[in-house]
């Protein structure tokens, strides 16, 4: 997070026998959990969870190749490895202490570490070939890689450059932090292969990002050539004028051209995997045990951040919605267990967008998988005071009934909140005309 953010793809936390994880938490973090209605005992379940990995280029591999990878991992890990039912490409390693560096399939670039909960957030978008996809908070990049694979035509020959016909659609990643974007770029270079032809990265603020999807058929050299001939030296002048904020921070040559970047289309799919306090991930939480709890207090759970994070999330969600075309799908997700960063944020969004504009849909990836989910937070499950305070907003919470919570205690995965929202018609543009103060989560209107 901020300058302290680190992504350690191969790091695995060691759980000491006969001890509870929560017994090591600082008093301030325990207070944070209490204020956010999170049971500290949920972290003691993490030691029993499996280690998840994703098979890269899964949609291009034969069943025999997949079986060989599973067998190889099982031999290296010395434990059972299972396919995750209903979640394509994900494997469950039953020994949670295994390190990726021990696995030949990791060294050879066949797998990458990724929790199944993160996979569900990406799969909830139902990306199809030809879609223009926006990942508004893309670092460290594991979801972005999966989105690019979903977009890619599996019939394209993996041993050659992509054909013109296969290069349809795009994946646009955005992140505000240079070093997080650099991590994402490194992942793309290392693992994306030919899929990197679809990907462009922008180093910008996701709450104000305003670049539209690439031009239709951005991949067609003839169209690029024609655009250049009709506009003179457009490409060179465009690069000079837009160097600061218009061209991608990282992209292939074709996606960096003026023709590709001068698009006016909105996106078919938008993922807002929003910045959060990461309290649903034991790996994130326990890093602070080594780095120092004072870092957690300063960067994650201080009073200012606890209040500012839901506001940031609300503005990311609203901007992602603005960039989504009617009929498109937006997925809002966090790896927090806090209702204030999940149901309150989506509830505030739904209060600004009526039933004729936004619909929270069932998530096919959840229905296809054998994964238990926890119920979302509802005022009716709280005290009488809470029910009374939210009585006029009951309909808002009922509209998000198809959102899901993945909870370590029931889901056999890290914590994750996922809401899939369909855009039924255009948005109220006045929300973006200097009225950012109205873009807020539901107020915390009852005492804890």
From TrEMBL:
Domain of life: Eukaryota
Pfam families with a match to the protein in the record: Methyltr_RsmB-F (PF01189)
Entry annotated with the keyword S-adenosyl-L-methionine: yes
Active site annotation, chain numbering: 335
CDD domains: AdoMet_MTases
Keyword tRNA processing on entry: no
Binding locations of S-adenosyl-L-methionine: 175, 205, 273
InterPro entries in the record: MeTrfase_RsmB-F_NOP2_cat, MeTrfase_RsmB-F_NOP2_dom, RCMT, RCMT_subfamily_9, SAM-dependent_MTases_sf
Gene3D superfamilies: Vaccinia Virus protein VP39
Recorded GO MF terms: RNA binding; RNA methyltransferase activity
Single GO biological process annotation from the record: RNA methylation
Transmembrane segments: none
Keywords: Methyltransferase, RNA-binding, S-adenosyl-L-methionine, Transferase
Domain SAM-dependent MTase RsmB/NOP-type intervals: 41-424
Family under the similarity heading: Belongs to the class I-like SAM-binding methyltransferase superfamily. RsmB/NOP family.
Protein name, as recorded: SAM-dependent MTase RsmB/NOP-type domain-containing protein
Originating species: Coemansia spiralis
